[in-house]
Amino acid sequence: MNFQWYPGHMTKAKRQMQEDIKLIDIVVEIVDARIPVSSKNPDIDELAKNKYRLIIFNKIDLADPKETAKWENYYKEKGFHTIQVNSKSGLGMKNVTGVIQEACKEKIERDRKRGILNRPIRAMIVGIPNVGKSTFINSFVKKACAKTGNKPGVTKGKQWIRMNKNIELLDTPGILWPKFEDQRVGLRLAFIGSIKEEILNITELSMELIDFLCHNYSSILTQRYGVDETRNKAEILEEIAVNRQCRLKGNQIDYDKAAGILMDEFRNGKLGAITLEFVNKEEKANSETV
């Protein structure tokens, strides 16, 4: 499968972010815990290179907890602050403010020495589509927070939300999409539903997922669908179709329907907690491409 999709409005969003980032202290990047590399936009590292950084592993309920812990250590070693959350359920959300303050403690101390007290930290929250950024913002901001309006020295029309006396959030930052060279990145984004399905072949995509699961999470498909995982991926999809009674007129097998069931149940966590990329494998792959 070939993935190349970089919508034109993303270029505009990138330019907007270049302007907005001058106004903030910390970039808070949301990633999907199932794909902590593929859902992380490499453009952000360049745009935010002089800012404090926090990576939030969202949707931790869907990811393999052992692998998420490894990814946290991986990013911490690279100088990022990290935190795990499930913004839908609220798990971990109460700790976000404290981690932001910890990440910006040098700035807070610098302000204190200059006699500047209680200046709020300015944060920008970024994330590619479908990592749960909107859910995170809604959970983080809550209804009680009021927009503070334009501030002196800030470009006209910019809106800030005061979270509390310590943090202000730049409202509605541009969403960026990674322009990926590595097709594996596109495949993983397609798995979690970040690429529009109109441009995908759902049956091919499901067979790629079957192949991954058989190699990395053996017996999961057997437990869920009663299939024989020693068979090839097309045969396994056919078994899923038969076991879930996916039929067309004339009793023909409906592969697309079976593929849709598999993809939906994976994305909703019904197959279990699954991570799609692993620290050791990613480090090896990155070193080979350098």
List the helices and strands and how they pair.
Blueprint (H helix, E strand, L loop, with lengths): L7 H13 L5 E7 L9 H6 L4 E7 L6 H13 L3 E4 L11 H8 L1 H9 L7 E6 L6 H9 L18 E3 L4 E4 L12 H10 L9 H15 L3 H6 L7 H11 L11 H13 L11 H11 L1
Parallel strand pairs: 1-2, 1-4, 2-3, 4-6
Antiparallel strand pairs: 5-6
Helix pairs in contact: 8-10, 8-11, 10-11
Task: Describe the model.
This protein is α/β, with parallel strands linked by helices and 290 residues long. It folds into 2 domains: 163 residues, Rossmann fold (3-Layer(aba) Sandwich), CATH 3.40.50; 89 residues, Conserved Hypothetical Protein Ylqf, Chain: A, domain 2, CATH 1.10.1580.10. Helices cover 43% and strands 11% of the residues. A 6-stranded mixed β-sheet has the order 3-2-1-4-6-5, sandwiched between helices. Strand 1, helix 2 and strand 2 form a beta-alpha-beta unit. Helix 8 packs across helix 11. It is elongated. About 4% of the residues have low confidence.
